[in-house]
Design a protein that fits this description.
single chain; 164 residues; alpha/beta; 8 helices; 19% strand
Length: 164
C-alpha cells in the first residue's frame, strides 16, 4: 500500500477539537465532517486538501477527547495518511478502527514542510520526501492491519469477512 500526496503541516498537540470542532459533533456523517476537517487549525484546509494528500504533524497528534469523529473527518476529507512524531493513544486506536493509516516518525515530522510531495510505503514504513529527496523510516503497517484499512475500517472488515 503506497500513499502519495502533498504535505499539510501542523504543530504538536493538535487536539481532536482542532481536527473536528465540537460544534459539528451533532452528526457522524462523513460528508458533513469533511467540510470542517482541521478548519480551526487552518480555515482553508477543507477547500484545498485533495484526495491522497498527507497531514504531517508534531507530537501527540489527536490528543483531547476520544471521539471517533476526528479520524472519520480526516479520512472523509480525502487525506491518504497522517505522519506525526507521536499520536495520542486513543486517536491511534480510533484511526485504525476507522481505516485511517497513520505513521510515527519524529525525523519525518521535523523535516517535511508544507507543500512538499511525500510518498509513504505502508509495507516497509519508508517515507520519502519527493521534493527534497530525504528518506525516513516509520514502523511498517502489518499486513493484517493493511487489510483492515483497505476494507474501510474495523466494522467494514468484519462485515466483509462475514462475522456480522
Amino acid at each position: 500500500m503506497i500513499f502519495k500526496g502533498k504535505a499539510y503541516t501542523f504543530g504538536s498537540d493538535v487536539d481532536t477539537d482542532a481536527i473536528i470542532p465540537a460544534r459539528y459533533l451533532s452528526t457522524s456523517d462523513p460528508d458533513v465532517l469533511k467540510l470542517h476537517c482541521m478548519e480551526d487549525a487552518d480555515p482553508e484546509f477543507p477547500n484545498k486538501v485533495k484526495p491522497g494528500d498527507i497531514i504531517v504533524a508534531g507530537k501527540n497528534f489527536g490528543c483531547g477527547s476520544s471521539r471517533e469523529h476526528a479520524p472519520i473527518a480526516i479520512k472523509a476529507a480525502g487525506v491518504g495518511c497522517v505522519i506525526a512524531s507521536s499520536f495520542a493513544r486513543i486517536f491511534f486506536r480510533n484511526s485504525f478502527n476507522m481505516g485511517l493509516p497513520i505513521f510515527e516518525s519524529d525525523e519525518a515530522s521535523g523535516a517535511i514542510r508544507g507543500g512538499d510531495m511525500v510518498e509513504v510505503d505502508a509495507d516497509s514504513g519508508v517515507i520519502r520526501n519527493l521534493t527534497t529527496g530525504a528518506r525516513f523510516q516509520a514502523k511498517p503497517i502489518p499486513s493484517f492491519m493493511q487489510e483492515l484499512i483497505a476494507d474501510g475500517g474495523l466494522m467494514e472488515h468484519i462485515r466483509k469477512r462475514g462475522s456480522i
